[in-house]
Amino acid sequence: MINWIDIVTSALGLTCVFLAGRNSKYNFWVGYLYTAALFLMFWEKNLYASLLLQPISLAINILGHYRWTHPREGEESASNSGELKVSMLSSAGRALTLASVLLIASLWGWTLDTLFPTDPHPYLDSCVTVLILMAQLLSAMKKWDCWIAWLLVNITQIILHISVGNVFMPIVCGLYLINGIWSLISWMRLYKKNI
Q: Please, is 188 exposed, middle or buried when counting C-beta atoms within 10 Å of its C-beta (0-12, 13-18, 19+)?
């Protein structure tokens, strides 16, 4: 069954991610609306980990909006000193990020399974939730690595949305996957140009 919140969420999400992949700070304005639409959609589908993500997501969106437009000294883009340049995590940073995602997702999945037995997939829901938080945080810091996290998010979200009967979101996540691959390549070029 198709409902209006699926359509609105899909349109806002695609717009937000498209703008982010093109290094546009305007992605944050669309992101605020997207967060509200996701909250409503997850409420309707009883996906509680994803629902609880939205206030945190909003906070990360605000942080990212500020960081992208107020770089610290040495973090400025070569093409615009008022914008944050793309950077990368160190190898140790990547290892810590992966370990954190696995640990937090496991604990959150167990908590959901215990507290919200109506969540149809508590561990998958938790994995997606933690990956989204990590991808958003890396995006807020304008780390190239965020696109690797987004690719993992897109794959797991396709599985999750199909399993709960969402109609448009699996298609949207497929489009996110395509955009994520393009953005991974595009941001690598920006990183090499110090932009």
A: middle
